[in-house]
Each structure stands twice: as C-alpha cells, then as structure tokens.
C-alpha cells in the first residue's frame, strides 16, 4: 500500500546541483525538508561544502545556515541517497549529433533505483521529449529496485521553470506544473511541490507535463527566430526594426514582445525544441518545420553578427584581421553567469579564426567564481576601462548586463555594434 507523504520534514534527494537543482535543494531545505544534493562533479560539491555558490540565484549567505544546521548535505556519494522519501532528477539532457542524450537521466535512475523503497516518490524535472518518464525513467527505477511504479512507489514529472537572474519570478512564486502516472502519484508529487511553491498546476498525464515544457520553449524559440530574421531583413531594407517592435508593443492585445539578439543560449532554446522535433520525426515520420526553421535562423545569428561587424569595420576603413575586438557580455542572457550554449562562444571563435584580436568582459562569467563555459576557456577577464574601450577597434555588446557602465562605454568606444539596443549615437550600429 502506497503512503502519501506529509508535506513537511521529508528526506529529499536532488540529483544534479546546477542552475535547476541547487535552487530546488535550497528551497526544499528552507521550508523544512532534509536535503541531500547529489552531483557527479566533485569540484562543484567541494565548493558547496565550503559554502560557495556558483549560481547567482543562490547566495553564499543562504547556503551558510543550511550547511551549519546539517539540513542540506551536498555529496558525490550515491550511498547518501539511502532512505529518501522524495527524489528529484534535475540533470542535463543535451543533444548528441542532433539526438536526445538521456545518459545523465539514465545514470540517475540507476542510482536511485538501488535506494528506492516502498512508498517513496521519484520525480523527473529534466527537460525531455514526451514519454521519457514512463518509457525510460520508469523501467530503470523498477529494474533497480524490484518495485512497481504506481503500486509500490510514486512516479511523476514536473518541468523546471527556472529563469536564471530573474528577480521577479523565482522558484517559489512561479506556478509549478505537476503530473503523476496514477492519481496517488499525482497527489504525492503535488503535495511535495505545494510545500515549495505558491501555485501548483496539476495535469492529467506525464506526457502532457513533458510537452508543456517543450511548448513553452518552442514558443520562445520560434518567436525569437522571427524577431532575428526581421532584424536581418529590416536592416537590408533600411528600416529600424527596434522602432517597429516598440510601436507594435503598444498594442494591448494579440502581440507579445520579442527582440532580436546575437543568438540563443542556455539549455532551453538551443536544445529543448529539438527534443520535440526529434520525437515527432522518430514517432510520426514527419518534420516539425517551425522548429527546424527556428533552429536555422537562431543558429546562424552569430555568423550574421560577425558579418555586420566586418561591414562596420570596412565602413571605417579597417580590416577585421588584426583589429582589436572587445566583446561585452558572454553570458547567454543579461544579469546572469549562465554561459551554457552561449552564442558568444561561436562569435569569439569566428572572429579569432579570421585573425582578430578578441578580448571579452563579463562581470558575471569571466571571473574566478564561475567555471568557464565551453568555447570560452581561452578568454581572460578584462576590466572595462576608458583606455581599453578607446583602444578597441570595435566593441560588441552581446549581453546587456545592468552592471555595465553604458555612459562610459558610449563615451570612450570609437565604434560599437550593439546587439541589444542599449546604446545610441552616430558611432553605434544596432543589430
């Protein structure tokens, strides 16, 4: 007989202590649960044990009392998962040659299966294609535990909605979609998240919850691609696309504002829609054309940024080769240190390959507190000073962090390619 958990003082395991898992683990601890944060990255766990956070949304000050009280325990040892009431999987789900890579989910399921007991609850949060919870996650848990989902333990899916750096919408006040494979599983999943967040939104099946996450991200991906392609064509037509977007945004219905940029990054947009496209093609034998078109447009925005930069330098009588290029903001979005899949890496690679002298400044990413993202390892931290700006042949604003001194940047930079429309002037080109 399955037990439905009391909402407080559960023994919780959160597998994966990244941008999703760490905020979840901290929040669960703060509301009264005892939490084990499991991660395979020994360096990451060592920092957490020392009270050092590598995620902006979680400060060292929030970690300190939880560690001191022993109610949050970061670990690399799977044996520490024993005896859990609730386990949540928040591991990465990347693409490998265009296909979903669920190896991290599978490894986590095997680990949890060895410690799964009757009445416990297992929840998948990692973004994935519809069917993963029941077709991949469930069999591995059952095989490892010898138990049957829905009869011996609860199983569900709840898509993460973490938006790094968002000060308005945090984990606790963002509505949480939940699902379960049976009514009792749904109740257990719902009760757990109800202890963490203000609003819980139940849906009937795990597939609906899995599709919900992909719908949210595909919607953004497609609309950003539209804005990006409009920016390219509007520039060629001599039209200010930003002014048009501003004007369209005054309409109080039927329009949602999306703006162009140097490309998309993070886990969500470069990866998640392709999970849906892959599933559609694999299961139905059809192409998800909107996703494929959006991928094509957004993936080529770094190339377009470089072409615009080359054109801007040519107008000023300078070749790209040998020019000093300063990239401002290498995170994939403003006010965060998240540089996963950042378009800045591709832009830096292209510029370096064409002979430019590339430097970068980012107060959130290129410091000692954050590991370097793939493609950014060679970039050294540069302080934005009047002298540095004045000696750069071009300054490219990629992520418009509030920490940047924009009047200083505008006053001392001879030429700026602004991909976020934060600056104005005759020496500024907007994307």
Summarize the structure.
The chain has helices spanning 21-30, 42-49, 60-69, 103-113, 132-145, 183-194, 206-237, 241-248, 268-284, 289-299, 301-315, 343-353, 386-391, 406-412; strands at residues 11-15, 34-38, 72-75, 86-89, 95-96, 99-100, 121-124, 154-157, 176-180, 200-202, 324-328, 357-361, 394-397, 416-418, 428-430. With 431 residues, the protein is of the alpha/beta class.
What labels would you give this structure?
globular; 14 helices; disordered N terminus; 431 residues; eight-stranded mixed beta sheet; five-stranded parallel beta sheet; 40% helix; alpha/beta
Task: Map the helices and strands.
Elements: E1 11-15, H1 21-30, E2 34-38, H2 42-49, H3 60-69, E3 72-75, E4 86-89, E5 95-96, E6 99-100, H4 103-113, E7 121-124, H5 132-145, E8 154-157, E9 176-180, H6 183-194, E10 200-202, H7 206-237, H8 241-248, H9 268-284, H10 289-299, H11 301-315, E11 324-328, H12 343-353, E12 357-361, H13 386-391, E13 394-397, H14 406-412, E14 416-418, E15 428-430
Parallel strand pairs: 1-2, 1-4, 2-3, 4-7, 7-8, 9-10, 11-12, 11-13, 13-14, 14-15
Antiparallel strand pairs: 5-6, 8-9
């Amino acid at each position: 007989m399955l037990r439905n958990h009391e909402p407080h003082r559960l023994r919780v395991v959160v597998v994966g202590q990244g941008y999703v898992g760490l905020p979840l683990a901290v929040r669960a601890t703060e509301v009264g649960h005892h939490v084990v944060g499991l991660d395979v990255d020994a360096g990451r766990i060592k920092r957490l044990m020392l009270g050092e956070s590598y995620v902006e949304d979680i400060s060292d000050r929030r970690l300190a009392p939880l560690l001191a009280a022993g109610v949050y325990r970061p670990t690399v040892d799977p044996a520490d998962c024993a005896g859990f009431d609730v386990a949540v999987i928040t591991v990465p789900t990347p693409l490998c040659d265009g296909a979903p890579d669920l190896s991290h989910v599978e490894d986590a399921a095997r680990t949890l299966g060895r410690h799964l007991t009757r009445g416990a609850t297992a929840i998948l949060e990692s973004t994935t294609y519809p069917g993963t919870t029941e077709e991949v996650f469930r069999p591995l848990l059952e095989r490892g535990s010898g138990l049957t989902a829905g009869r011996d333990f609860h199983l569900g899916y709840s898509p993460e909605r973490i938006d790094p750096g968002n000060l308005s919408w945090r984990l606790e006040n963002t509505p949480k979609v939940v699902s379960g494979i049976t009514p009792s599983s749904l109740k257990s999943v719902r009760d757990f998240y109800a202890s963490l967040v203000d609003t819980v939104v139940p849906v009937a099946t795990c597939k609906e919850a899995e599709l919900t996450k992909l719908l949210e991200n595909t919607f953004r991906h497609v609309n950003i691609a539209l804005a990006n392609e409009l920016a390219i064509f509007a520039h060629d037509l001599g039209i200010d696309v930003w002014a048009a977007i501003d004007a369209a945004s005054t309409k109080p219905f039927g329009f949602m504002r999306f703006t162009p940029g140097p490309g998309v990054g993070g886990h969500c947009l470069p990866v998640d829609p392709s999970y849906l496209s892959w599933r559609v093609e694999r299961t139905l034998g059809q192409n998800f054309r909107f996703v494929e078109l959006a991928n094509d447009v957004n993936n080529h925005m770094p190339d377009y940024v470089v072409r615009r930069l080359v054109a801007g330098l040519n107008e000023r009588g300078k070749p790209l080769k040998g020019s000093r290029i300063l990239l401002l903001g290498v995170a994939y979005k403003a006010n965060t240190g998240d540089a996963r899949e950042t378009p800045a890496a591709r832009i830096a690679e292209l510029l370096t390959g064409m002979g430019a002298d590339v430097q970068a400044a980012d107060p959130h990413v290129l410091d000692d507190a954050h590991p370097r993202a793939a493609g950014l390892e060679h970039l050294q931290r540069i302080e934005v000073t009047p002298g540095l700006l004045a000696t750069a042949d071009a300054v490219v604003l990629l992520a418009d962090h509030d920490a940047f001194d924009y009047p200083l940047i505008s006053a001392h930079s001879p030429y700026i390619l602004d991909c976020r429309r934060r600056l104005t002037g005759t020496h500024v080109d907007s994307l």
